[in-house]
Amino acid sequence: MDQVKEFADVPQEFVRDGVQFINRCTKPDKREFLKISQAVGVGFLVMGVIGYVVKLVHIPVNNILVGGS
What we know:
Layout (H helix, E strand, L loop, with lengths): L1 H23 L5 H37 L3
């Protein structure tokens, strides 16, 4: 009987912790949202540039190694 009660307490505790977490969280204001969006945009840009440079370097190196005709 104790195992059944203990098994039933786990979801209740999870839901209670989830509700506390949601209540503690706040939405970002406009300034904070713009800052986060700007950081994400710069990250995308940097990753794109890195990918482009790697591809740009990889093509000639691959031709040298493979010995393109």
